[in-house]
UniProtKB/TrEMBL annotation:
It comes from the Eukaryota. This is Major facilitator superfamily (MFS) profile domain-containing protein. Residues 66-447 form the Major facilitator superfamily (MFS) profile domain. It is a multi-pass membrane protein. The chain crosses the membrane at residues 61-92, 104-122, 134-152, 158-178, 190-210, 222-243, 264-284, 331-349, 355-379, 391-412, 424-443. The keyword Transmembrane helix applies. Keywords: Membrane, Transmembrane, Transmembrane helix. Gene3D superfamilies: MFS general substrate transporter like domains (1.20.1250.20). GO terms for molecular function: transmembrane transporter activity. It is found in: Membrane. SUPFAM superfamilies: MFS general substrate transporter. It comes from Penicillium salamii. InterPro entries: MFS, MFS_dom, MFS_trans_sf, Proton-linked_MCT. The lineage of its organism: Eukaryota, Fungi, Dikarya, Ascomycota, Pezizomycotina.
Length: 452
């Protein structure tokens, strides 16, 4: 009798789980083929129930991971964004008399290059050793980069510390955590991604202001040391809170699939990232120095840079929220085009503090959309289980634009003595990036795809 009751209860529980999965799929306008197909021919040993148990909870502890990821992004990307303040200081003070403007630009670019190049290694380390060990390695590299930079006496010292070492720290922190957030969500994936990446904007605001104040009050060397200690304490705490839903495997070694480049939709997505990044880092690194160029004080210039990042912190979750409702490609395309138009019409005419501040607010709401949507778009195109492999290819594809975007801008300004060429370049890169998304939308619509 007890056995019969147990079998009946098991059958009802299994049916309820399958019914819930099908209703969730219908309500979110998405299909769960591997669950629905198996529902009609399940045996008592079917994997359908375990698949349901392993499906993303669309929240729960995932929100703890989102907040921890946001704080980590604030203390990695936020520090990287604050390099615009350091750059403005380097250019206006003879810290390293023999260094050129182009060499200073390459310090910031080198950190980005290193971060994206290390992405396959970071992914492989996460798969083999787990996310926490990998991210702790990033904490060590990032902390060491600032402490060592405080002792720099020549420009090549900055190449190694504020460039390569910091890039390694960013890579081992950002790459693993970027793949964790999508594991916890389905219908709220873009919103969660936007919230986690809003931390980069908030960090950029805080540390653009903090870095300028510390340099002014306690000097460059101690500014580096204080930031290094903050990086260690805060990032260590957040790494302990991160939980990876994936399985660590010492045999799984595939971190990239070159075959993805045979797909037109993936190539169009890569094109969107390539041209967006060419414009994005010009905005990030040039706003503070441009403010000084038009006569603003260093405090005003750093505030403009900080407000730009604050607008990104607000804009990324909003973009993620609305993209879940109206379509990710549509939202990304519209905001990318808007960022380009605002740069071409407002930034080129910003000769006053108020107008430049307006530009920082308006363009900041749109300009950071790539970071909020690239993960969810890759997940939709390639599938959730192949996000890390696809993202590694995306990171590697933006190595070149991230390396040369700011050097191109400084090269143009050094040659012409004006920022107009760099402003036009940044604006047109965003407009070009939106063309790739428009093409992707048309291709997907022609194929009858579900991605909008």
């Amino acid at each position: 009798m007890r056995t019969w009751i147990s079998v009946q209860m098991y059958g009802k529980a299994k049916a309820a789980l399958l019914s819930k999965a099908e209703s969730t799929a219908v309500s979110s306008n998405k299909t769960v083929p591997h669950l629905i197909q198996n529902s009609n021919n399940c045996t008592e040993d079917t994997p359908a129930v375990s698949s349901l148990a392993n499906s993303p909870p669309d929240g729960g502890y995932g929100w703890v991971c989102v907040i921890a990821a946001a704080v980590i992004n604030a203390h990695s990307w936020g520090f990287n964004t604050a390099y615009g303040v350091f750059l403005a200081y380097y250019l206006s003070h003879e810290i390293f008399p023999d260094a050129s403007r182009l060499e200073f630009a390459f310090v910031g670019s080198l950190s980005l290059t290193t971060m994206f190049l290390v992405s396959p290694i970071a992914t492989m380390s996460t798969l083999r050793y787990g996310i926490r060990k990998t991210m702790f390695l990033g904490v060590i590299f990032e902390t060491a980069s600032f402490i060592c930079a405080s002792f720099a006496s020549q420009i090549w010292h900055l190449f190694i510390t504020q460039g390569i070492m910091f890039g390694l720290g960013m890579g081992f922190l950002f790459i693993p955590v970027a793949s964790v957030v999508p594991q916890w969500f389905t219908t709220k994936r873009s919103l969660a991604s936007g919230v986690s990446l809003s931390g980069a904007g908030l960090g950029g605001l805080v540390y653009s202001l903090v870095a300028e104040a510390m340099i002014r009050n306690i000097g460059l060397k101690w500014a580096f040391r204080v930031i290094g200690l903050l990086a260690f304490c805060v990032n260590t705490t957040c790494v302990l809170l991160i939980k990876d839903r994936g399985q660590t495997s010492k045999t799984r070694k595939v971190t990239m699939r070159i075959a993805f480049f045979k797909r037109l939709d993936f190539n169009l997505l890569v094109g969107f990232g390539f041209f967006t990044v060419l414009g994005y880092f010009i905005l990030i690194y040039s706003l503070a120095s441009y403010g000084v160029h038009i006569g603003l004080t260093s405090s005003q210039a750093s505030l403009v840079s900080g407000i730009f990042n604050l607008s990104q912190a607000v804009g990324r979750p909003l973009i993620g929220y609305f993209s879940d409702a109206v379509g990710r490609i549509k939202m990304a395309g519209l905001t990318t085009f808007a960022a380009g138009v605002i740069a071409l019409t407002v930034w080129v005419n910003s000769q006053s503090y108020r107008l430049l501040m307006f530009f920082a607010v308006a363009d900041g709401l749109c300009a950071g959309n790539f970071w909020a949507l690239i993960g969810p778009l890759v997940a939709e195109i390639l599938g959730l289980e192949q996000v890390s492999q696809g993202m590694n290819l995306v990171w590697l594809s933006i190595v070149i634009p991230s390396t040369f975007s700011e050097p191109i801008a400084l090269g143009i300004t050094s040659t012409t003595g004006r920022y107009l060429g760099a402003q036009l370049f940044a604006g047109f890169m965003y407009v070009g990036a939106s063309a790739f998304l428009g093409t992707l939308w048309l291709v997907n619509r022609k194929r009858g795809g579900h991605i909008t």
